[in-house]
Design a protein that fits this description.
Blueprint (H helix, E strand, L loop, with lengths): L1 E7 L7 H13 L3 E4 L4 E4 L2 H17 L4 E7 L2
Antiparallel strand pairs: 1-3, 1-4, 2-3
Helix pairs in contact: 1-2
Amino acid sequence: MTAEFTIEPFVEGDPGPHVLAAIEVAESAGLAVEIGPFGTSVSGDPEVVLSTVDGILRAAVANGATRISLQVNTG
């Protein structure tokens, strides 16, 4: 399963603490993390992805996120 998220505010070349905190949660859960120019994707076991998405969102908001777009692909 893959979850892709875009966390704003977006500043090119500077992910900011709101993005870095979300990535740290995903990495701590053992998910594969791929950082792209406009978003980040995490992939792994469906149960781990689903249970970690909550922590990713909470970490981003706690660190200044103003908007989060999330897309989950089950296939």
